[in-house]
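Sample entry was shown:
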Amino acid sequence: MTHTITRFVDTTYQLAECPTWDDRKNRLLWTDIQGRTIQSMDWASREITKWQFDNEVGSFGLTDDDRLVVAVWDKIILFDPESGASEVLAEVEADQPRTRLNDGKVGPDGAFWVGTMDTVSPREPIAGLYRIDASGEVSEIRDELQCSNGLAWTPDGTYMYHADSSPGWIEYYTFEPETGTLGSKMLYAQQTNESGRPDGATVDSDANYWSAGVSAGLLNCFAPDGELLHAIRMPIDKPTMPCFCGPDLDHLIVTSIKQPSDPTAVERDTMSGGLFLVEGHGRTGLKTYRFKTA
């Protein structure tokens, strides 16, 4: 299978993440984590709007009342893009200065699932994975993580994927889509620096798991049984997360990290930190779940 990869947005970001398709507003959203913003691109006009926050935005999700549930460092915030109004729903690891909220998504159960990461190198297993509901209740799902990542669900919502970028494992749990109850846990894939340690992820309508191989410049596509179907070489070293978007969910967008400038490089790096469109994959994505506010 031949893939064509082109720059999708001209703007360069220090750390672009969490691309998310909003089918009601016909727009693609993403976060510039270090820029402390959420960006939104109208699909028809390509006009970009951005909203500024007080701290780094690790991830966010859509809500059932057209607000956003946003992970801002150690706080979960409900934010209204129309009015700019916000309210703090919960705090996560507020007593742990080394960690911040990282990869997060709304699950089939309507809760916001989000993990944390150790911001100090070398990372220690002091982070966790959490579930936050409309009441603001924070349930710890897993501890002793280094960099929680890779959240995604199968098309029928009965399995949840989760990864830790530092040790490189991807696991999956049986999942009750109505209640968010987790069952047995299994190893799905073990990645290395060379094969691409797992960053953000998505699942297509055929139940394949797409993982940004952040350490190897790869976009990895795994079959439901864990077999590697494709390792797509990206034009940048550090892709961060894929997302199927567009009205037909057939556009595959990948975000990335801006690499530090290399004074010895022959050619100037003008690609890293951008958003990229991957074509030729022949897949479509799944509708984005929304956070239940009541």
Observations:
- The chain has a mean pLDDT of 96.
- Residues 128 and 143 are 4 Å apart (CA to CA).
